[in-house]
Specification:
Number of domains: 2
Number of strands: 10
Strand order of the largest sheet: 6-7-8-3-9-10
CATH superfamily of the largest domain: P-loop containing nucleotide triphosphate hydrolases
Structural class: alpha/beta
Number of helices: 10
Helix content: 25-40%
Strand content: 15-25%
CATH architecture of the largest domain: 3-Layer(aba) Sandwich
Largest sheet: 6 strands, mixed
Shape: globular
Length: 248
């Protein structure tokens, strides 16, 4: 579905990505884990059309993705950015309307109905200003806004950042529901335990390079991953929630 081939990106003299290769297949959840400064957000912004790689290509079903974010959305790729970035002075419903700029009429109504089914609290607060929502509710709104364009590929950058554990659990459960409904998910997440628990496959990004790949289950058992990202020096890690089966 998505193919990133040899992507390199620099901020001036600072190299953020160096020849990154990855693939996301239809109906997968794929996770990208790595420490701060590894290049995860830069990679997601390149895919979303917010940045233009100096080298390499990004193709969706064999066709290059455009380098303009609104055109990427029209190709049915949506991004939920780090920090949520909702519109605080607009209502919940107005935020959703903006996310659904590619839709109109009954399609727009259906999109909002779906958002309120996924996140009932948003329906209860549909006329409330986005900036008055809790952090967890704002993250729900950011995800719902991303879904308004009816994406086939949903990009999520640090969806658990700054949220309480119970909210994180609910967010990850909802991501699985979204995936089971047919949306492919590419997930950047510092909470490696949660990300690997739901990912069919995962990539480890370090200083702009992919250094490890495997199924979520494999990486959860990898001693180097345990020590570097999960704070465990030896032995297996238990995770809550079902482990999705990856592609061979």
């Amino acid at each position: 579905m998505l193919e990133v081939a040899g992507v390199t990106f620099s901020y001036g003299k600072i190299r953020a990505l160096s020849g990154v290769n990855l693939a996301v297949r239809e109906a997968e959840i794929v996770a990208i884990i790595g420490s701060n400064g590894a290049g995860k957000t830069t990679l997601m912004r390149c895919i979303a059309g917010q940045l233009r790689p100096q080298v390499g290509s990004i193709n969706l079903r064999g066709v290059p993705l455009p380098a303009k974010p609104h055109e990427v959305v029209r190709r049915r790729v949506a991004m939920v950015p780090e920090g949520r970035l909702i519109f605080p002075n607009l209502t919940v419903e107005e935020n959703l309307d903006i996310g659904g700029f590619t839709r109109s009429g009954s399609d727009l109504v259906k999109g909002k109905d779906r958002a309120f089914r996924l996140f009932p609290v948003l329906g209860e607060r549909r006329r409330q200003m986005g900036g008055t929502l809790s952090g967890g509710e704002q993250q729900m709104l950011a995800i719902a806004r991303g879904l308004m364009s009816e994406p086939r590929l949903l990009l999520l950058d640090e969806p658990s950042l700054g949220l309480a554990p119970l909210i994180v659990r609910d967010i990850f459960r909802t991501l699985q529901e979204i995936n089971e409904a047919g949306v492919t998910v590419l997930l950047v997440e510092q909470n490696a335990r949660k990300a690997l628990a739901i990912a069919g496959r995962a990539y480890v990004l370090e200083t702009g390079r992919i250094v490890r790949t495997g199924t979520g289950a494999e990486l959860l058992k990898d001693p180097a991953i345990l020590e570097s990202y999960l704070g465990v020096r030896s032995g297996p890690v238990s995770v809550d929630g079902p482990q999705r089966r990856g592609f061979a």
